[in-house]
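re: the backbone from monday

yeah here it is again, tokenized this time
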């Protein structure tokens, strides 16, 4: 039976470190996602039109999630055609 003063083996310490790393990585991903969602929420709650709101949202998503680019498209119900409302390419990202 181990006591509080028992030494932790290197193998056990390695396992604990690996678990902590995974938990920290998961937490960092969740934090980044929540931060991005809060930015989108701020944008949506402004009184902008669909086009400008879409442009701001897609730019925020690309920049915050380090994407090269993205687009938002809407489907016209009557014609069943897809039309791009906003697109953004981050020139800082390598192609």
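seq for it, each position gets an aa:
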């Amino acid at each position: 039976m181990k006591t509080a003063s028992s030494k932790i083996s290197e193998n056990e310490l390695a396992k604990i470190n690996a678990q902590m790393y995974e938990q920290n990585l998961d937490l960092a991903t969740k934090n980044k996602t929540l931060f991005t969602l809060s930015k989108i929420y701020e944008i949506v709650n402004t009184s902008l039109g669909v086009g400008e709101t879409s442009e701001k949202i897609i730019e925020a998503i690309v920049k915050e999630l380090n994407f090269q680019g993205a687009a938002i498209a809407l489907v016209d119900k009557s014609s069943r055609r897809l039309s791009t409302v906003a697109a953004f390419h981050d020139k800082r990202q390598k192609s």
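The radius of gyration is 22 Å. The helical segments are 10-44, 50-64.
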